[in-house]
Structure formats: structure tokens, C-alpha cells
Design goal:
The chain is an alpha+beta fold. The chain is built from six helices and 18 strands.
Length: about 300
């Protein structure tokens, strides 16, 4: 029987005792029996503390060190927890009086900020008397304003970020007005959204630009790369045209890291199916937003 099992016994002689288990009797050396309460199991001491790092999201606490095991509960971003070592990419923790496990990939040793003070400026291209690229009744200015508002909503609701728009209605702004608006809003980064067009219907796909002319070209390249990567993660059915440099006015003359996103070709039959679809626009918005959030976590 395991050590510290409770049993009923009586002495047999000077050296042996009778142990009663159910309806049966057994014999054991009396020296192996101890009268009184079994000692408590030594309490394990924490090996350290970590903070959950899931801005805008929650972190699942699982019953074992596996991403497919039962979810015991959830921890919010920035929660401090004591851990008892790690195994298979999971920290062992105590959760509601029992053992639980959280992914080490979503923790950090320093307390993360709950949100960021970064001001994100979103610029929906064209507007008013400037429809941008046109395909029948489908206008670039309408598509990009819709996607821009979706990006704003996503960043505000999930991350609590400060988001500003150069335009929130169907109005025309010059390129310089867009740059000056971003500066007036004291933006920390600027993202302009557009759709592409070509004389050939074969041209298709998503691409993101940054300016090598800008004083912020290094960070702008990171911003553009993050957006393109996350956008294609959401829109895997579209062609990935990659990250490119171009000296467009709004990303060359801005006073902050800037990127310009082409969400697809309005002249492409394949891309149009995504550009005019509400669910696809939402996925585009989430891809752009997650790229921005990845940049913000790195620099702010």
C-alpha cells in the first residue's frame, strides 16, 4: 500500500501488527506503522513569475501541457502568474486550486502594457469628386472607406488603440491635406488604403508599399512587411505581389513611418469578387489591423 495510507490495526506481538483491510487481515512489522495524522505533502514552491501577453485577447488555461487538452479557464492580458516550471512549451501554474498549463509563447517576464499610446492614422484613398479606380458601379473610394472603418473598429475594440481617420465620409482631400492631417493628429504611424487598376484584366493581387525616400524608411519597411504578411494570411486566395518601394506623396512626405496598401485590382475579375464582398472586406481589414498591431507591439 502507498506510504501514508490510513489503516485499522491491532498488535499481534512485540514486533508485528495485524492490519484490517475490508474483511481480510494482514500482517506487517509494527515499525512500519505510525499512530497519528499523516504528514502533509510538501508544498511545491514557484520557480518564477510570468505575465500573460495576449493584447486584446485571453489566454486559455489547459488541464495538461497540450493545445488540445481541456480548457479550465482563461486569463486576461497582463495577468501575473506564478509558474512551477515548463514542459512541452507550457508553464505549469495553479488555477482555482488545481494544476493548470498556459502556453509559454504568450507570456513574458516583464509586465506588458495593457494598451499603447501610439496614435494610428488611417487614410482612405480618394473620395468626393475623385472616385479613384472604377469598375462599373464599383468605386475605389467606396471600397477603401469601408475597409478603413473596419480596420478602425477592429483596432479599437480588440486592442484599445487610438485610431484617427483622415476622412470618415465621402469627401475629397488633396495629398498634402492628408499628410498635414496626419501631422496635426500627432500620428505615430500612417497607413493609406487603396485598390489597384490596370489596363489588363490579368493583373491581380495584393501589394504594400513604403517609401525609400522617407526619413522613416526603415520603420516604414517593417510596417509594410507586417501588413502584407498578415493581410495575405487572411487573404490566402489572392495573389501575393509582395512589399515594394514607391515614392507616393503620402508615404514619402509624411513625418512618421508610413505604408500604402493596394487591396487588389478593381480591374481583375478574381480580385473584384473579394473587393465587393463584405466578408472578404472584413478579412482584409483584420489582416491590415493585425499587421499594424504587430508593428505597434514592436515599436510602442
Amino acid at each position: 500500500m502507498p506510504q501514508y495510507t490510513t489503516v485499522t490495526y491491532s498488535k499481534h506481538n512485540a514486533s508485528w501488527s495485524i492490519v484490517y483491510i475490508g474483511t481480510e487481515t494482514f500482517y506487517t512489522p509494527t515499525s512500519w506503522l505510525t499512530v497519528g495524522k499523516a504528514p502533509a505533502t510538501p508544498v511545491a514552491m514557484p520557480k518564477g513569475k510570468v505575465y500573460t501577453n495576449t493584447p486584446g485577447d485571453i489566454l486559455n488555461v489547459r488541464a495538461s501541457a497540450s493545445g488540445s487538452s481541456t480548457i479550465l479557464g482563461r486569463l486576461t492580458h497582463g495577468t501575473q502568474v506564478d509558474h512551477y516550471g515548463s514542459t512541452n512549451g507550457f508553464y505549469k501554474i495553479k488555477y482555482n486550486g488545481r494544476d493548470g498549463y498556459i502556453s509559454t509563447a504568450y507570456t513574458m517576464t516583464l509586465k506588458p502594457s495593457v494598451t499603447s499610446n501610439a496614435v494610428i492614422v488611417l487614410d482612405a484613398g480618394h473620395g468626393g469628386g475623385d472616385p479613384g479606380a472604377v469598375n462599373g458601379s464599383l468605386y475605389e473610394k467606396t471600397i477603401v472607406l469601408d475597409v478603413t472603418k473596419r480596420v478602425e473598429t477592429y483596432l479599437r475594440s480588440k486592442y484599445g488603440y487610438q485610431v484617427r481617420l483622415t476622412r470618415s465620409t465621402d469627401v475629397y482631400l488633396t495629398l498634402d491635406q492628408r499628410v498635414q492631417t496626419a501631422k496635426m493628429l500627432r500620428g505615430n504611424l500612417f497607413v493609406s488604403l487603396h485598390t489597384n487598376a490596370a489596363t489588363s484584366s490579368a493583373a491581380k493581387g495584393v501589394e504594400t508599399f513604403y517609401s525609400s525616400y522617407s526619413a522613416h524608411s526603415s520603420k516604414s519597411r517593417v510596417l509594410a512587411t507586417n501588413i502584407q504578411s498578415n493581410l495575405m494570411g487572411k487573404m490566402s486566395g489572392m495573389t501575393n505581389r509582395g512589399v515594394k518601394t514607391a515614392n507616393y506623396y503620402v508615404i514619402s512626405y509624411n513625418t512618421m513611418p508610413s505604408a500604402l496598401v493596394e487591396l487588389g485590382f478593381i480591374s481583375s475579375p478574381q480580385d473584384v469578387t473579394h473587393l465587393q464582398n463584405s466578408a472578404s472586406r472584413q478579412r482584409m481589414a483584420e489582416g491590415v489591423a493585425e499587421g499594424i498591431a504587430q508593428y505597434v507591439r514592436t515599436y510602442h
